[in-house]
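#struct-pred
JK: can someone run the complex with adenosine-5'-triphosphate? inputs below
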Amino acid sequence: MIAGVSKAFRQGRRTLEQRLRRAPDTRSEVVAVDGIDLEVSTREVFGLVGPNGAGKSTTVRMIATLLEPTRGKVEVCGVDAVAHPQRARRHLGVVIGGERSVYWKLTGRENLEYFAALYHVPRREVPRRIERVLAEMNLLDRADDYAERYSTGMRQRLSLARALLQEPTVLLLDEPTSGLDPRSVTQLHERIARLRENGHCVLVTTHNMDEADRLCDRVAIIDRGRVVRSGTPGALKAALQVDRRAIVRLSLRPGGADDNLVSDVEDFATIAEKSIDGSDLHMVLHLPLEVDLLPRLVEVSKRHEAVLRTVEIEPVTLRDVFLAATENGGRE
Ligand SMILES: Nc1ncnc2c1ncn2[C@@H]1O[C@H](COP(=O)(O)OP(=O)(O)OP(=O)(O)O)[C@@H](O)[C@H]1O
Ligand SMILES: [Mg+2]
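RT: done, structure tokens with the ligand placed:
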């Protein structure tokens, strides 16, 4: 989809006088996107994640033909999007800046009629398409209300309905779930999954690692304009697991004095935290993943006549991968 794409912005602004004098532009540049390659296939949900200022929105806007790359190639469904932005746009549905992309003084339906005309949807098709996207986004019953009376979630759905009007192959969604409640997020995820089943190709940006994990087939973590990790969420987590130590939360009720028990635990793990709550002893252990934890715990607690009450082994999450990949992350 995009290859070696970069974008540099000039910082600050030129005064009117500098412009009139045609003074040379001496502003410094900030490289927002620094040679990113991405390939997204149909029937795929691809996640672009990264800290604030990483270059996600800039990347999306370049693919959306709203911003011209300084360098590199953008291709949408075989169309060179830099040379032929109009043609590329026919394949694109874009949701950027969520609720701001609808007209508040128009009703939901009027918004869609307006955009259908703008996108050159064949006139005979318009009513059918509008009904379809309204139904798809669950907006039929509020279609004739002003958009300014919509909730954030409804405006977000209206933006998505708008993006679907042209029946695009590629959907670009910049933070589609920001501002949505958990149920709306789940519903949006289901809709996105349905779009994938229908053969769409979806590129979505998010800060939410749980979301990326649940929603995306593949993710690219970008930091300071570069891809620092990419792959399926499972593969990224597995790769991190190799050099990470497991974290285990443990509580047990010691039979007698707990000093020896603690030193026996220290034989195979580092005790990161220890606290006593009534007769229960809580510990957070860090240990290398190769330690076969459960048999050793059982053995130690038997030896000291302690009762194991809870053992929680924390799994590696995509959030851990994100934090490891974007150390001191971001620019801001
Ligand atoms: N029009 C612009 N002019 C100058 N600098 C810009 C412009 N747009 C973005 N930038 C800069 O480019 C960098 C990347 O911004 P971008 O919006 O792509 O980040 P992001 O990953 O979307 O961040 P966030 O998670 O906060 O939305 C930032 O340093 C930003 O200040
Ligand atoms: Mg952004």
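RT: quick notes.
The longest strand covers residues 29-38.
The chain is about 35% helix and 30% strand.
JK: thanks, will look after standup
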